[in-house]
Amino acid sequence: MRVLFFLFTVLVMASGCGILDGNNEAQGNSPTLTETQHTGDVPSNEEMLIGARNQFPSAAENMKSEKSFYSKEDAKLLVKKHLQVGNNESMSVTFEGFKDDHYLFHVYDLVHFNNQPEKMTRGWYKVDPESGKVSLEKK
Residue 132's pLDDT is what? Predict the structure, then answer.
């Protein structure tokens, strides 16, 4: 039984732990930093840095499609534009937090009843930070 286990272990180690030279290059990928291009030589730190610098531009090209996001202030202006109101002094748009990865704003008017200021809610609005789309959350 021990002999069978030993042979199985040797077989797994020989097939699974072997180094596949040129595997990345055969698949069309550029060699990684750990794959030396020097036969038998260990690259110096400077050679490793140069290799890393050469690989960075291709990674940076893939990140060119970065999304731009609307800030909270931009989103607040989008809500005002959505409601089609100018600088209405009695209306307030306050940032209340995030809901479902969207900005959440409380829109209300400050009115006076019996000489007491009261908030009269117009609604709660969500703004998508990526697209800037404004939607009514709750009236």
Answer: 92
